[in-house]
Amino acid sequence: MPTTTSVPRSRSVPQTRLAAVLVFLAVESTAVASLGTPLLPAVQQAEHVSLAASQWTLTITLLTGAVVTPVLGRLGDGRLRRRATVGAVAVMLAGCVLSALPAGFAVFLAGRALQGAGLGLVPLATAVARDDLPAGRSRHTIAAIGITTAVGIGVGYPLVGLLAEYLGLYAPFWVVAAMSALALAAAAAVLPASPARPSRLDVPGVVLLGSGIVGLLLALAEGPGWGWTSPATLACAAGSAALLAAWAGWELRARRPLVELRLLRRRAVLAANVTAFGVAVGFYPLASLVVRFVQAPPGTGYGFGASVLVAGLMLTPFSVASFAASKVATRAARRTSAEFVVAASCVVLIASMVLFLVARGSYAGIVVIMALAGFGVGCVYAVNPLQITGDVPADQTGSAMSFYQLVRTVAYSIASALSATVLVMYIPAGRLLPSNAGYSAAAVVSIVVLGAALVASTLFAVPGRPKRGGQVISAGW
User: Fold this and answer.
1) CA-based angle 433:435:439, to the nearest 5?
2) Is 7 exposed, middle or buried (0-12, 13-18, 19+ CB in 10 A)?
3) Are 221 and 421 in contact (CB under 8 A)?
4) Which residue has the higher pLDDT, 181 or 35?
5) Rounded Cα–Cα distance for residues 275 and 20 (Å)
6) Has domain 15-194+259-464 been given CATH number 3.40.250.10?
7) Which residue of 194, 228, 326, 393 sits 20 to 30 Å from the alpha carbon of 386, by its own alpha carbon?
8) Strand, coil or helix: what is 65?
9) How is residue 390 annotated by DSSP?
10) CA-to-CA distance for 136 and 209, rounded, in angstroms?
11) Among 158-162, 232-236, 437-441, which is the least confidently predicted range?
């Protein structure tokens, strides 16, 4: 079993400062993600586009992130780590500036695509934390990075809503651009030298993976308009399946693969990725569903007519519960197992979606729903990175974490496109907004997916004595 202890290559940068910068990079990644969901109705109105088109401002960022993340993860395992990290922040900064310019929907969408580079910062930060911080601080930093996404939703969404409501649609992008500039300066000043290991990029793997993901998302996002049995939809789906199968085959044969799929033979790594995929597909639509639901005008028969700010505040309980869950999860994992914690979290997430199905008619109900969802997601995301880093060699940390991030990002992309597809199917003729039944249908889909995630996580769960040896979770939490 590999050990998580590593010797820092350079002690010129104080450990506290380096840990703070690594967490800030993860926060910046979350800030970019926060620019999507709360602004969906505002983008639809300001840019005069359809619901399906507005959803692409979220999906395209996730799509770019899904392709870029494994590339950055592989580069992060070798001598190009520092350059890759600084470059990703710079591209993210450029994307924020583009989206902040009132230059039309095409430019706005291009900016959102470039912002996807920021989603690859998490595996890079994790790799640095493992290589350049002592074991004790490394564990805490990796855990903090792991829950940043969940916590940031509840903090970032209200702030984005506040800025958009009082300063306009483009103000949040200027603020995140300023944050990106600060992150760029901090990364350039604080990040240590890259490891001496080679950074060979698997170009065929990048092309196959990117093409396969694009085809999959096109089929999901455009299926309602093209027709689910139309030649275009079927061609995208079949082509995507073939490309992704070819990618997996190539990765297993490549000498220096983009993603080391053989790491999935390790039980903890496989458990983290399988359950993360199901949990992400199941819970991710909830935020956008809540934002759209509460902002819908009362004339729809269900909406609250809430402002962007109020809609964002409805997600704050998610953040608070996620942070609390991270503390509970590590203690529970020490007493049982990480896999058992994930299985229990799936039950909590299913409960939150059932409540959205039957009790979404009041602000109080929404608050309870989001708190339950935040607690479940916080538990999962706190233990997943520790499962992985505790079961892979040090020189594979970036690749392993990038695959985990890829799994989550692809799952988010699928969930985003799928939830929009369900809502579009329930838009009455001559109307712009979906009926209440559309939200119920989306909730049912999430419940089914989370049920599958529960089954998978239960198969991996091993109640009883905590794992010892190289497992991070049992070491000093």
Assistant:
1) 105
2) exposed
3) yes
4) 181
5) 29
6) no
7) 194
8) helix
9) T
10) 36
11) 158-162
- 393 φ/ψ angles, rounded to the nearest 5 degrees: -65, 155
Cβ within 8 Å of residue 416, ≥6 positions away:
55, 58, 59, 62, 284, 285, 288
Nearest of 290, 276, 286, 303 to residue 387 by alpha carbon: 276
Residue 35, pLDDT above cutoff 90 = no
Q: What is the mean pLDDT of residues 300-314?
A: 85
Decide if 342 contacts 383 (C-beta within 8 A): yes
Q: How far is CA 255 from CA 14, 67, 81, in A?
A: 37, 20, 20
Q: What angle do CA 185, 186, 189 make, to 5 degrees?
A: 85
Residue whose entry in the numeric block shows the structure tokens 């979290």: 345
**CA atoms lying within 13 Å on the CB side of residue 144:** 18
Within 8 A by CB and 6+ apart from 135, the residues are 4, 5, 6, 475
pLDDT tens profile 254-290? 887 877 788 888 888 888 899 999 999 999 888 889 9
Please indicate whether residue 14 or residue 443 has the higher confidence score (pLDDT): 443
Give the Cβ contact number of residue 137 at 10 Å.
16
> What is the helix (H) or strand (E) element at residue 208, kind and residue range?
helix 203-226
Look at residues 197, 61, 176 and name the one whose alpha carbon lies nearest to residue 131: 197
d(CA 180, CA 159): 16
Q: How far is CA 123 from the centre of its chain?
A: 12
Count Cβ neighbours within 10 Å for each residue of 16-25 and write b for 16 or more, e otherwise.
Answer: eebbebbbbb
Q: Which long-range contacts (CB under 8 A, 24 or more apart) does 427-431 make?
A: 427/51
Grade residue 226 by pLDDT with cuts at 50, 70 and 90: confident
Chain position carrying tokens 């249908």: 441
What per-residue confidence (pLDDT) applies to 199? 64
pLDDT at 292 over 90: no
> In the predicted model, what is the mean pLDDT of the chain?
82
Angle at 293 between CA 305 and CA 147, to 5 degrees: 120
